[in-house]
Design brief:
This protein is α+β, with helices and mostly antiparallel strands and 672 residues long. The longest helix has 25 residues.
């Protein structure tokens, strides 16, 4: 058998150029397939393409190469590889991510070159119908062109029965020369609050909210005080949303107080529309509970414990009406265009549901610096907002659906077309792969980052509504009321029982994935993984998995695609410095002479620090490289039983970290 040669990624990687291109891609507004559907923690396409290309055998054409991504997520790596001409395969457990990947890689191909044109044509028809049928939800839409509604939470004092404003974000605009803020002014005679929109500087905005501490309240009228527990109970049982201001649009935004909320809200119409649409669809509103994880899903602490509770009645009414329209139009599309194109149109226009769920809920804050709406589902968890903005998504204001449609259509045009018709995206668990031995030339992936993001919780907020529109056309994907979290490979102490059990679950799961990767990779293939974390447990669980899976890390490369600058402190930079870990089966690495006698911890640390210094990499990068290199060497001396014990593994990791600290005093990990 011929000698195994190093792949380009094991010899050289222009990390500076890759980092610069990746950061640039993240911060530009250019259209890409990422603009079509919502998913989280996606790598830049330029980064994915560079890693795939460098992981391949240079003596083999791209068309001859087969590459697997066992954690498809938002489909970045399969799309990037397809653009290179590589035969990309992917696995994904989560139904929403699987649907996203299937749409981008398979449904788009079956629809043909007319897809963008059809999406714009049929999408405008959908939105025009939605605008017409939701007019009664917005009484002042046509007369006043109101694009945004600003809400603040208020509680009712149990002592005197009067209002207690919970406003925390009063600013409407911080643009120079047009600063505006909401002030709720107390009237001690009527025991109520009058709302004003004032021209203000930061010193002029008076806070009359009931907050007396971070989690405690005090009534302004009777002095009743509430501790943290009492505050949470009061808000759960005796609070409501209060419309405080509106934004009108002519040539620019104008902010006005909502002195007569009844002129802008019709709750009865929303309730009626929801009932009509659910009856027409033969479905109920999604009855999906949000796990009560304080610090991660904070709205549950205050009574928002289901997906529907994250939306106002009007927001729900608009979303359910969109689902109904998409559902009913699929029959017409099938008659006009045929089954394949009909499914593709429905799939891609369902991206409008993603946008509504993400940009029009009680989780969406107003960004006063640029007068825009912030995403509600940006992750890693769910914030509790005391002030949120609601948009009219059918007017030409922030995050409107007509603009989103244009971005969806433009993104679709950027989807690469494979040379063949084989469908290579599979729904399944990567801990057990249905591929033959030695099948892939490379595996390139971006796995879950331990406990950084709980995908299924966020995905449910989109999937549950998308299911209402698409269950008829895609029953095999949308049969369940929520996405499957039982096989989600994340460390979740609240799900697995304790931090130790969560560590074991993640490390064991990654070991199984990497063992399968080792089985399906060719003898001369490489396994390339992007990973980042800021805690010892986040790193120790992964490195232990590499060792238990019989893999040898043959190269490490840093990338800084998450940030625009590079701070010197690991405290702020550990999560921002991603590492590319290149590995091979240990027996292949040994045959190449890459497995040597274990060097001392100090020698490995010095080697990594010298390498970083020679390339002028900053201290945070140097420390991370040294940590991974030295820890891997230490753990190869452990038995499988020792590698399965978090305390034993973490103790070794802390010893390594302490030695690095002697050279780089700023080096540290987070406490979790």
């Amino acid at each position: 058998m011929s000698e195994i040669q190093k792949r380009p990624i094991e010899q050289y990687l222009d990390v500076a150029s890759i980092s610069e291109a990746g950061t640039s891609e993240r911060y530009q507004r250019a259209s890409s397939p990422h603009t079509v559907f919502t998913w989280w923690a996606r790598r830049p396409f330029s980064t994915a393409a560079d890693l795939i290309s460098a992981s391949l055998d240079p003596d083999q054409t791209a068309e001859e190469s087969k590459v697997l991504d066992p954690f498809v997520g938002g489909a970045t790596f399969p799309l990037a590889g397809t653009r290179l001409g590589v035969k990309m395969y992917g696995m994904e457990n989560n139904q929403l991510a699987y649907f996203t990947a299937k749409a981008l890689l398979d449904f788009s191909r079956s629809a043909g070159r007319q897809l963008r044109h059809l999406l714009m044509l049929e999408g405008r028809n959908v939105l025009d119908q939605l605008k017409s049928e939701t007019g009664e939800l917005y009484p002042a839409r046509d007369a006043e062109n109101i694009i945004c509604y600003f809400w603040s939470r208020s509680a009712t004092c149990t002592g005197c029965g009067n209002e207690m404003p919970l406003q925390k974000r009063p600013w409407l605009s911080k643009k120079a020369g047009r600063q505006r803020a909401i002030v709720q002014q107390p009237d001690f005679e009527t025991k109520s609050f009058d709302v004003h929109v004032v021209e203000a500087t930061s010193e002029a905005v008076t806070d009359h909210s009931a907050w007396s501490g971070r989690n405690s309240l005090r009534c302004l009228f009777c002095g009743q005080e509430y501790d943290r527990q009492q505050t949470a109970e009061l808000i759960r049982t005796a609070s409501a949303d209060k419309l405080t201001a509106i934004a009108k649009l002519d040539k620019r935004k104008h902010f006005l107080p909502a002195t007569k909320p009844q002129n802008y809200i019709t709750d009865t119409a929303a309730e009626r529309m929801i009932k009509e649409d659910c009856a027409a669809l033969g479905l109920q509103l999604p009855d999906v509970e949000i796990p009560a994880w304080s610090g991660i899903t904070n709205p549950t602490v205050y009574g928002h414990d289901t997906i529907t509770s994250l939306f106002t009645e009007r927001q729900l009414a608009v979303t359910t009406r969109l689902c109904r329209i998409l559902n009913e139009r699929q029959k017409t599309w099938e008659e006009k265009y045929g089954e394949s194109q009909s499914k593709a149109i429905a799939a891609f226009l369902s991206g409008l549901i993603d946008q509504l769920a993400d940009w029009n809920s009680r989780l969406c804050m107003w960004i006063s610096q640029n007068e825009q709406v912030g995403r509600g589902l940006s992750g890693p968890g769910m914030p509790m907002l005391w002030d949120f903005v609601e948009i009219d998504p059918l007017l030409r204001g922030p995050a409107n659906l007509y603009g989103k449609l244009e971005r969806i259509a433009a993104g679709v045009e950027q989807i690469p077309t494979p040379a063949d018709q084989e469908e290579r995206i599979t729904r399944g668990d990567s801990r057990s792969m249905a591929y033959p031995d030695a099948f892939f030339d490379a595996i390139v992936t971006d796995p879950p980052y331990y406990d950084n993001l709980y995908y299924s919780i966020l995905a449910d907020c989109i999937y549950a509504f998308k299911r209402m529109a698409l269950i008829g056309s895609f029953p095999e994907i949308f049969s369940e009321p929520r996405t499957d979290s039982t096989r989600e490979l994340t460390a979740a102490p609240r799900r697995q029982g304790s931090p130790t059990e969560a560590w074991t679950y993640f490390s064991t799961g990654m070991t199984q994935v990497l063992r399968e990767a080792r089985r399906v990779i060719k003898r001369d293939g490489v396994i390339t993984v992007c990973y980042a974390h800021s805690s010892i447990s986040g790193w120790s669980s992964l490195i232990a998995a590499y060792v238990q899976a019989g893999l040898k890390i043959t190269q490490l490369w840093p990338m800084t695609i998450e940030r625009t600058h590079r701070p010197r402190s690991m405290k702020s930079a550990a999560i921002n410095t991603s590492l590319v870990l290149v590995a091979r089966p240990r027996e292949a690495a040994s045959a190449m002479g890459l497995v040597q006698d274990a060097a001392s911890t100090d020698a490995l640390i010095k080697e990594a620090l010298d390498r970083a210094a020679a390339r002028n990499w900053p201290d945070d990068v140097a420390a991370t490289l040294a940590f991974v290199s030295a820890v891997e060497a230490r753990l190869t001396q452990f038995t499988d039983e020792m590698l399965s014990q978090q305390d034993t593994v973490n103790s070794a990791c802390r010893e390594v970290a302490d030695r690095i600290y002697e050279s780089i005093p700023e080096f540290s990990f987070s406490s979790r």
